Amino acid sequence: MVSPDTESYIMDDMHYTRGRPDASKPPLRRFRFIPVRTLLPNLITLLALCAGLTAIRLAVEEKLEWAVAAIVFAALLDGIDGRIARMLKGASRFGAELDSLADFVNFGVAPALMLYFWTLHDLRSAGWIAGMVFAICTGLRLARFNVMIDDPDKPAWAANFFAGIPAPAGAITVLLPIYVYFLGMPRLSFTAPVTLVYTLFIAFLMVSRLPVFSGKRVGKRVAPEMVLPVCVAVVLFFALLVAYPWEVLTIGTILYLGFLPVGWMSYREYQRKDAAAAVESRSRASERQTGEREEAPLAPDQREPPGASRPSRLN
What we know:
Number of domains: 1
Radius of gyration: 32 Å
Structural class: mainly alpha
Shape: globular
Strand content: under 5%
CATH superfamily: CDP-alcohol phosphotransferase transmembrane (TM) domain
CATH class: Mainly Alpha
Largest sheet: 3 strands, antiparallel
Order of helices and strands: EEEHHHHEHHHEHH
């Protein structure tokens, strides 16, 4: 038995001695509860990442149809996770970083490996370099987006545009040779070289400064009379995508690439209006300053005394 005077016990979990906190040990950190609205967008991002990793496995097993379906599914999930985060007010820095890492795998690594296993491997090292360049350009594109997103000097209208093709669109467009192949076009001797050049072209568009419509401000508000037509259009699109996937993906990719010059012209028009507004603002400010100088009365100590303009006599 231990006497009451010498009895001493320590509760390791709470750092207590005789019921009192031990000042020599730091207090345990209590983690606060995380709301579900913050977890939901991250769960959607993780589901998209699973789809991208599954696409890689399907490409290795030469199941390209299902691999393309997994990439399209990942792109659809990537398009809604950010919107859901903003709607639920559950956006976080952790979610933004997780989204970038998932996009690199889903839209950089997976499409590059799919093209390599499909036909780029016929070119040996050259085909591998093309796929690797595409994946690297995807990573550079995502890193630049993360840096530019907090630029305070951007005008308000700049939110309507991306600098370069975004990663999901790059992944969908770079797979165009596979869509055409499933439409019935055979793999000829020039299929691999053409695919290599096309892959490098899409990679260049991703890291370029080409203004591309972002579509972030589309779909935030829908007029009451347009609710039913929008619902019908969405259902019709997905029905066509399921029934005629290769036709829809081919036509959509060609239309998207053909629409890129329109985004560039719209961006230049915004720049022209900003330049004209800046010139007009400077001219108005200059006229206002000139008018103030002409109308401002002279202070008494600034007025010339009588005869000050006449020369004094020499004594």
